[in-house]
């Protein structure tokens, strides 16, 4: 009797799950990987075809025995006779020999199935070997991520719901195609264009009244007309690759300079002084500092938030950077170790001789990050900020220590004098 009761109880649970509406079961299956969702088909005849109605699919050709098996499996989802909802689709084809055989009909199918998120990754191959995708008309698409694909020439674009567009290692026939893709997305807020190539090297006009975040790199020249722009992330190698028009752009500039060209540094320094939030790589500040040796240190008088990465060997220039930011309120400092340096045992113990104005009058938050093993000079760096920051409210440490070293560090940290009685250490 006991055995029968247990069996009845289990069966009852199974019956209740099976009796749920199909849309709800589909949402449950969404929490599984596509492969695991398919495996549920063996549970009963009731579940045999439910996996085909899952609205979120993650398809990777490498998880199949061969590419034909992958195509055959995926075709069962994209049957044009179905009216099921495909909310999110990710397709990954890491083999370049298979990219040219990609069934374009899948993209045509999902564009009419209320797709919201589309993510297509191909292994990079020559543009002439990659199928040209046409993803230009879709009423429901919210997020589009393409990597390694070729875009077909665009005559007409209508993506009224698209908010996020990421394009990486894309080939396209002309700048007009990308410009129509942007202008045909009237609510676009985030745009990434990295390592994209065109046969005709021209300037890309980015015009949008809704764009808030843009990420670009050095392969294309951009003229940006985006009045609501809040953040521009740019990788610059030889020449400045962007021009901002019709915008005061007081937001965040995330800049990585890969050249010591004086003309390039001079061009970049026309933009930095007007931003309030700056993210700079270790080599960017190094180039600016080297440039400033021939003249006065540039002043970033509007800057209130700074996120900077430093090699520990360059920390002696940190004081100069802080002196150029008299109104700085928030500092995030990440320390990294140069793996090419030969004498790792000769780490500098930096001692600052003066106290910059921002520590006295404006600096309220400091975060120190270090993800490599111990740096002996770190304690003095912490001591410097705590001792000299008059109105500091929060000091956050995100550093790596062994258990024994961490205990000793915390004990010494508790005894350090603090200039600001309101300062909290996290």
From TrEMBL:
Taxonomic superkingdom: Eukaryota
One Pfam assignment:
F-box
Q: SMART domains from the entry?
A: FBD, FBOX
Domain spans labelled F-box? 14-50
Please give the name of this protein.
F-box domain
What organism does the UniProt record list as the source? Arabidopsis thaliana x Arabidopsis arenosa
């Amino acid at each position: 009797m006991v055995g029968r009761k247990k069996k009845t109880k289990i069966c009852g649970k199974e019956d209740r799950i099976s009796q749920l509406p199909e849309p709800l079961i589909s949402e449950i299956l969404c929490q599984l990987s596509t492969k695991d969702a398919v495996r549920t088909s063996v549970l009963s005849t009731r579940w045999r075809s439910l996996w085909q109605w899952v609205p979120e699919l993650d398809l990777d050709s490498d998880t199949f025995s061969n590419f034909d098996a992958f195509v055959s499996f995926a075709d069962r989802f994209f049957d044009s006779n179905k009216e099921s909802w495909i909310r999110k689709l990710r397709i990954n084809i890491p083999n370049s020999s298979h990219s040219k055989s990609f069934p374009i009909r899948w993209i045509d199918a999902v564009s009419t199935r209320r797709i919201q998120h589309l993510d297509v990754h191909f292994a990079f191959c020559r543009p002439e070997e990659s199928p040209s995708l046409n993803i230009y008309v879709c009423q429901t698409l919210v997020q589009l991520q393409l990597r390694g694909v070729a875009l077909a020439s665009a005559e007409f674009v209508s993506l009224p719901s698209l908010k996020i567009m990421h394009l990486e290692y894309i080939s396209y026939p002309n700048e007009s195609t990308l410009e129509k893709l942007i202008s045909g997305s009237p609510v676009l807020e985030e745009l990434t264009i990295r390592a994209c190539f065109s046969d005709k090297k021209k300037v890309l006009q980015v015009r949008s009244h809704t764009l808030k975040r843009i990420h670009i790199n050095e392969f294309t020249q951009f003229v940006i007309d985006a009045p609501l722009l809040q953040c521009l992330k740019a990788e610059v190698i030889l020449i400045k690759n962007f021009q901002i028009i019709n915008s005061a752009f007081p937001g965040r500039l995330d800049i990585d300079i890969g050249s010591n060209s004086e003309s390039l540094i001079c061009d970049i320094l026309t933009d930095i002084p007007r931003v309030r939030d700056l993210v700079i790589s270790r080599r960017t500040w190094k180039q600016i500092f080297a440039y400033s040796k021939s003249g006065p240190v540039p002043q970033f008088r509007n800057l209130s938030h700074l996120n900077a990465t430093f090699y520990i060997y360059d920390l002696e220039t940190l004081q100069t950077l802080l002196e150029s930011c008299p109104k700085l309120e928030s500092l995030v400092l990440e320390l990294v170790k140069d793996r090419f340096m030969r004498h790792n045992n000769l780490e500098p113990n930096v001692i600052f001789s003066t106290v910059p104005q921002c520590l006295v009058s404006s600096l309220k938050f400091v975060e120190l990050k270090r993800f490599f093993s111990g740096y002996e000079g770190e304690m003095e760096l912490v001591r410097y900020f705590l001792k000299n920051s008059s109105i500091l409210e929060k000091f956050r440490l995100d550093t790596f220590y062994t258990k024994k070293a961490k205990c000793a560090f915390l004990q010494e940290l508790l005894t350090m004098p603090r200039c600001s009685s309101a300062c909290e250490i996290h």
